[in-house]
């Protein structure tokens, strides 16, 4: 009797121990402590291989760690014990995670044939259709689910998320907004609303959603990242940079924040600073796809590079010009950019049955550096020359400084000296230009881009000739493939010479250009029409037109062929005195090959 009692006590103690271990594993599971949960569930299976809860949860943990084959073996072991609809759905989910959504859908269809109203299977089926790219079917499935479960927030949330993926953003916004209104504490719905608003271009509204979330919880990392990305999309790059940095203060190893800060710094033109942030990300997750994408962008700027181009142009003035151009660059130090280029040009001019030919050449070395938060400075020095009888070699030089690219209005100040060797007559006369120029660019509002320029130049040939020039312009992308705007340009020369360039004492041009460009695979056609008015000294105000067309074929990134043609009545196209009734036409073939 005592022996039987002792056995009973041992059994009771064993049961208590098992229940305690089970409770401890369940608590770890609910708390997200998979290390503890895995250890206890593994011990449970070692003691009892038929423990269905341990089998199910171990199978899920194996899948979460990417060990899909091991996970599926555990699911097969679990399902051999008897029917289990939940396990069948989760097994199909693992198959979908493994990259086989079509097979997962077939498994769910088999399940739904037996249990047509099983809601988790219907939800998973709609989700897998989205993963398989069957967006319309997925949306339809979620709509059916919403009709069955009109108050089910998870179904409505999943439907809103899918609508945003399908670019049906207006519908997604309405659905997310209804979820937030019915439960303002629904964090996922608020994040989804912010994302959809941002993708739909409603950036101020998206930022307001994220700021409201951060007012309640300043450490919400997803809201911090959402606000930073929205600010970057809106062109507020400096504010976006600070927002990403606040996100990294919350979690210094967060990949989304590191990648987002890298991208924002790139958009500011601060490639060296972006590279430093990206190296932090690479030390944590070197194979992350977003990290690798950013690395390709940065390497395109920072790594050694070389390219060559050729261009042949023939025009209605009787000129034929072939130019070979080569350039290269490297960065011995991250902030020291060294570049070099050289060109060789053959020029012909035919008039009255007689052809004149000349050759011109040039090359230069340039050193540049970038100073945070984005200032760039550069200087260049080189030589130019030609086979003209009376013209020897000429020194070419330049210096420039540019403001940070994240400013609302950016500017570049440059001083240069170089030959004007675009035609035979210019080469023969040895015309060169020393110029100081200020170029401005801004984004005032509503997607507009505004530009301004002012320059003072001295043309040296038979005599020195001073030119003053200025320009203002604005354009806006009205459609993804269409840009329209207007610009005003004017200039004037101090003297009227015969050195081969159009040199009126006053010239004014007002244009309203419209440009279309769209890619079709490797082919990219574009066209531009710019009607306007022009006024030259001694001539009446008259109409003007500029037409250009281009067809590019991309062999590989940085390697392309292009055919261009144009027609113009502008004085800007004129390389001679006069200009009344002038018509200029050209056709050009070019190719570029980068390494």
Please describe the topology of this protein.
Layout: H1 2-31, H2 34-47, H3 52-64, H4 68-79, H5 85-97, H6 101-114, H7 119-131, H8 135-148, H9 153-165, H10 169-182, H11 187-199, H12 203-216, H13 221-233, H14 237-250, H15 255-267, H16 271-284, H17 289-302, E1 305-315, E2 319-333, E3 336-351, E4 354-371, E5 375-386, E6 394-402, E7 409-419, H18 424-429, E8 432-442, E9 448-460, E10 464-479, E11 482-493, E12 507-511, E13 514-517, E14 523-536, E15 542-556, E16 559-568, E17 584-594
Antiparallel strand pairs: 1-2, 1-17, 2-3, 3-4, 4-5, 5-6, 6-7, 7-8, 8-9, 9-10, 10-11, 11-12, 11-13, 12-14, 13-14, 14-15, 15-16, 16-17
Helix pairs in contact: 1-2, 2-3, 3-4, 4-5, 5-6, 5-7, 6-7, 7-8, 8-9, 9-10, 9-11, 10-11, 11-12, 11-13, 12-13, 13-14, 13-15, 14-15, 15-16, 15-17, 16-17
List the main descriptive attributes of the protein structure presented here.
17-stranded antiparallel β-sheet; elongated; Porin; alpha+beta; 595 residues
Walk me through what this model shows.
By secondary structure, the protein is an alpha+beta fold. It is 42% helix and 34% strand. The chain has helices spanning 2-31, 34-47, 52-64, 68-79, 85-97, 101-114, 119-131, 135-148, 153-165, 169-182, 187-199, 203-216, 221-233, 237-250, 255-267, 271-284, 289-302, 424-429; strands at residues 305-315, 319-333, 336-351, 354-371, 375-386, 394-402, 409-419, 432-442, 448-460, 464-479, 482-493, 507-511, 514-517, 523-536, 542-556, 559-568, 584-594. It has a 17-stranded antiparallel beta sheet that branches. Helix 10 runs antiparallel to helix 11 (187-199) and helix 15 (255-267) runs antiparallel to helix 16 (271-284). It is elongated. The termini are far apart.
């Amino acid at each position: 009797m005592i022996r039987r009692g002792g056995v009973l006590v041992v059994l009771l103690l064993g049961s208590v121990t098992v229940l305690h271990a089970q409770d401890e594993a369940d608590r770890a599971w609910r708390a997200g402590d998979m290390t503890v949960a895995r250890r206890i569930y593994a011990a449970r299976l070692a003691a009892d291989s038929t423990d269905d809860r341990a089998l199910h949860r171990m199978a899920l943990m194996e899948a979460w760690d990417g060990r899909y084959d091991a996970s599926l073996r555990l699911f097969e072991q679990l399902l051999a014990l008897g029917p289990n609809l939940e396990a069948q759905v989760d097994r199909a989910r693992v198959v979908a995670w493994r990259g086989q959504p079509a097979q997962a859908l077939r498994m769910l269809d088999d399940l739904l044939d037996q249990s047509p109203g099983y809601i988790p299977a219907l939800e998973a089926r709609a989700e897998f259709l989205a993963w398989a790219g069957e967006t319309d079917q997925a949306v339809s499935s979620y709509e059916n689910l919403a009709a069955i479960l009109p108050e089910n927030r998870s179904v409505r949330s999943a439907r809103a998320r899918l609508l945003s993926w399908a670019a049906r953003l207006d519908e997604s916004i309405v659905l997310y907004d209804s979820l937030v209104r019915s439960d303002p504490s629904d964090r996922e719905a608020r994040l989804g609303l912010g994302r959809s608003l941002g993708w739909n271009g409603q950036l101020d509204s998206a930022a307001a959603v994220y700021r409201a979330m951060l007012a309640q919880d300043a450490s919400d990392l997803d809201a911090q990242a959402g606000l930073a990305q929205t600010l970057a999309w809106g062109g507020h790059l400096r504010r976006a940079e600070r927002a990403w940095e606040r996100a990294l203060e919350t979690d210094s190893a967060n990949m989304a924040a590191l990648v987002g800060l890298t991208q924002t710094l790139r958009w500011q033109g601060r490639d060296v600073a972006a590279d430093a942030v990206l190296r932090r990300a690479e030390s944590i997750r070197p194979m992350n796809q977003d990290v690798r994408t950013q690395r390709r962008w940065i390497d395109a700027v920072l790594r050694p590079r070389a390219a060559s181009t050729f261009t042949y142009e023939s025009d209605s003035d009787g000129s034929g010009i072939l130019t070979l151009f080569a350039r290269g660059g490297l960065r011995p130090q991250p902030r020291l950019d060294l570049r070099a280029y050289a060109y060789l040009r053959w020029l012909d001019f035919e008039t009255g049955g007689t052809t004149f030919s000349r050759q011109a050449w040039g090359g230069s070395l340039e050193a540049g550096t970038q100073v945070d938060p984005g200032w760039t400075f550069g200087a260049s020095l080189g030589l130019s020359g030609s086979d003209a009888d009376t013209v020897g070699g000429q020194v070419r030089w330049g210096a420039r400084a540019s403001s940070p690219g994240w400013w609302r209005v950016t500017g570049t100040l440059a001083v240069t000296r170089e030959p004007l060797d675009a035609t035979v007559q210019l080469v023969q006369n040895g015309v060169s230009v020393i110029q100081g120029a200020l170029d401005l660019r801004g984004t005032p509002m509503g997607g507009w881009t505004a530009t301004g320029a002012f320059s003072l130049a001295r043309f040296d040939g038979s005599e020195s000739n001073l030119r003053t020039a200025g320009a203002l312009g604005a354009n806006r992308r009205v459609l993804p493939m269409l840009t329209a705007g207007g610009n005003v340009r004017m200039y004037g020369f101090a003297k009227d010479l015969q050195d081969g360039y159009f040199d009126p004492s006053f010239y004014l041009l007002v244009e309203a250009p419209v440009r279309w460009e769209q890619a079709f695979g490797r082919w990219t056609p574009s066209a531009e029409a710019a009607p306007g008015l022009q006024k030259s000294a001694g001539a009446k105000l008259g109409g003007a037109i500029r037409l250009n067309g281009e067809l590019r074929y991309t062999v590989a990134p940085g390697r392309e062929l292009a055919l261009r043609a144009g027609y113009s009545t502008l004085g800007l196209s004129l390389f001679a005195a006069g200009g009344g009734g002038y018509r200029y036409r050209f056709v050009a073939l070019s190719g570029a090959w980068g390494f």
